[in-house]
Amino acid sequence: MLNQVYRLVSARQFEVQTVAETVSADQIVVRPRFLSVCHADQRYFTGQRPQNVLRQKLPMALIHEGVGTVVRDPQGKFAPGTLVVMIPNTPVEHDPIVPENYLPSSKFRSSGYNGTMQEYVVLNRDRVLAVPADFDHPMSAFIEMVSVGVQGLTQLQATMDADARVIGIWGDGNLGYIAATLVKQLFPDSQLVVFGRHQSKLDYFSFADKTYLVDQIPADLKVSQALECTGGRGSEAAIAQIIRHIHPLGTAVLMGVSEEPVAIDTRSVLAEGLTLRGVSRSGRADFERAIQILTDSPVTRERLQNLVGLTQKVSTIQDIIDFFERDLTNYWGKAVMEWDV
Ligand SMILES: NC(=O)C1=CN([C@@H]2O[C@H](COP(=O)(O)OP(=O)(O)OC[C@H]3O[C@@H](n4cnc5c(N)ncnc54)[C@H](OP(=O)(O)O)[C@@H]3O)[C@@H](O)[C@H]2O)C=CC1
Ligand SMILES: O=C(CO)[C@H](O)[C@H](O)COP(=O)(O)O
Ligand SMILES: [Zn+2]
Question: Which of 88, 90, 125, 250 could make a disulfide contact with 109, Cβ separation 3.0–4.6 Å?
Answer without folding.
Answer: 88
